[in-house]
Amino acid sequence: MNNTQNKEKELQADCFIDITSDTCPMTFVKTKLQIEKMQSGQIIEVLLNGGEPLKNVPLSAEELGHSVLATEEQSDGITYKLFIQKK
């Protein structure tokens, strides 16, 4: 098992959102709305595209005080998994 698989096993997300069909700024709007429904300490797994979403979603989450735990490139080379823990 490689490090990415180990990390994924350690990070048990409480919820999941796929924003690959959305564009900025809706990518973070949808992520933020889901985070607001969560309890403090819970983890969300976000599937998103590279480029603008990959840059803006983690930055915006951190600006609100949440923790970005991991970013994992997927085998397609286009999408990423982002793990965010609610403050």
Give the structure's gist in a few sentences.
The chain has 87 residues and is α+β, with helices and mostly antiparallel strands. The chain has helices spanning 3-10, 26-37, 52-63; strands spanning 15-18, 43-49, 67-73, 79-85.
Structural class: alpha+beta
Helix-strand pattern: HEHEHEE
Q: What's the end-to-end separation, in Å?
A: 30 Å
Number of domains: 1
Oligomer: single chain
Q: Summarize model confidence as the mean pLDDT.
A: 91
Radius of gyration, in Å, reads: 12 Å
Strand content: 25-35%
Shape: globular
Helix content: 25-40%
The tally of beta strands, per DSSP, is: 4
Please give the CATH class: Alpha Beta
CATH architecture: 2-Layer Sandwich
Q: What is the number of helices?
A: 3
Order of the strands making up the biggest sheet? 1-2-4-3
CATH superfamily label:
TusA-like domain
The residue ranges in which pLDDT falls below 50 over 5 or more consecutive positions are 1-6
| CATH topology tier name | Translation Initiation Factor IF3
The biggest beta sheet reads:
4 strands, mixed
